[in-house]
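REVIEWER CHECKLIST
Item 1: Sequence provided? yes
Item 2: Single chain? yes
Item 3: Sequence as submitted:
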Amino acid sequence: MKTPNVMVVCGGLALAVSASIVRPLVAGQGAPPNAPISPKTTVALFNGKDLSNFYTWTRDTKYENPRKIFNIEKENGQPVLHITGDGYGGLITKTEYTNYHLIAEYRWGDRTWGDRVDLARDNGILIHGIGPDGGSTVMRVAGVSPWLTSFEFQIIEGGVGDFLVLAGNDANEQPLTIGATVEVEMRPVPSARGGTTDQPFWKKGGEPKRIARGGATRVNWANKDPNVTTAKGTRGAKDVDTPGHGWTRVEYIADGDKLTYIVNGVVVMEASNITPTAGKIQVQTEQAEIYYRTIELRPLKK
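Item 4: Structure as written out by the authors:
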């Protein structure tokens, strides 16, 4: 079907422009962002009233939300963001941010879906998202990813606080520059095929390792249990997130080219020499039900 033209007035001239070009600019989806914001006061990304700070993106339905994955509900009289988990994608901020202290409080729901129905509940928060929506090369189907090119704060049973680099491409399918340096210690982890494989764990003062496309793209949090399983309900011996349906507080400190991850007051990951240092934020849906009562950005303390 031919895309209709619409009339756009520019400098007194009426121009015929394809509606397919105008729509994203009107909706704030894919529109060129303004300069990244560094918060001077607290920014409540989840404001308890609506989702006006975000737009939706899922791998299968793009900007539409026909399955009502993202909802505002009341729990004990307080507003919560309920993400049903039915799909891969997330809520993406309309604005880019830099130099901030992100605080989120979440708890798990019961339901899991699809190819992860029996696997560990999985979610996360992506920051410094750049490039086109769905432009990451991770988990692509028909050339479309659920994710922005970004850094992930992993929220998964048995691995809350893991660090991931989600590499990706620009609109012309050219690689975007993204990466970080993390001090690590290599430790043996049991392999599903038998024996062990060495994986990087964050260790302050350890060997600096570049985490980027073409090499390792994941670092386990400092005290992650190497014997944790992939089953739903799994839990490591030293996990610091709150078990069961209790609320867990996670924090991102994005300070220039440094990142710090905190779970329930415990520093679990640090990264430096990060590129990029600004971008959008994406709150994931990854086939597991989850609730948030707080998602906010605070100014850095200097």
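Item 5: Key structural point noted by reviewer: Residues 1-28 have pLDDT under 50 and may be disordered.
Item 6: Recommendation: ____
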